Amino acid sequence: MNRVVASLAGLFLVVGFLCAQDGIKDSGNTKKFIYRSAVNMDELYAIDKSMLSDHPFGELTARKLYVLQKIYTYVEPPSPTSPGEKTIVKKPVIYNTILKLNRNLKKMVKKGTMDKNKATSDLNLCLDVALSISADDTGDFESELKKAKSPDSIVQVFQMVELR
Dihedral sign, CA of 143, 160, 98, 113? Predict the structure, then answer.
């Protein structure tokens, strides 16, 4: 009887130890996405100021959002079967996540739950990444982005990207 109890205890100890080791490996999120940096500051400042809408995080953020819209969307002209114009989004997961993050960060700053400078830097970081990866294969990055629901987790996914 003692041998059975001792062997079961040993078995549970070994299984617990192995599960704990797997948990430690998984908790260290070392996943990185590497893309080429493609944000051209000269192009951003070449945009006419009259084309920009006001943004609470500043003119640079407004410029980046304008370029994001130009890169990620286009208007499909009317056709005989579809009489109205359609706006097509090239990478809807990334584009809609940036718009969602923009809305949520503005609300958080307005409510006072987040500092305006931190929100500005987080949004600008995410915009830089989104502008840089618009022409790249982003399947793995988009699947990680789909899992992120809160603004903090969205920013963490964008921080996994290394721009070179």
Answer: positive
pLDDT of residue 7: 53
Task: Give the DSSP H or E segment for 74.
Answer: strand 73-76
Indicate the pTM of the whole model: 0.79
Hey, where are the domains in the chain? 1-28, 31-163
* CB-CB contact of 70 with 51 (8 Å): no
Rounded Cα–Cα distance for residues 123 and 105 (Å): 8
Please, which residues bridge with residue 35 across strands? 163
Residue with tokens 């100890």: 13
pLDDT tens column, 29-60: 568 999 999 888 899 999 999 999 999 999 99
pLDDT band at 113 (very low <50, low <70, confident <90, very high): very high
Question: For residue 20, how far is the Cα from the chain centroid?
Answer: 30
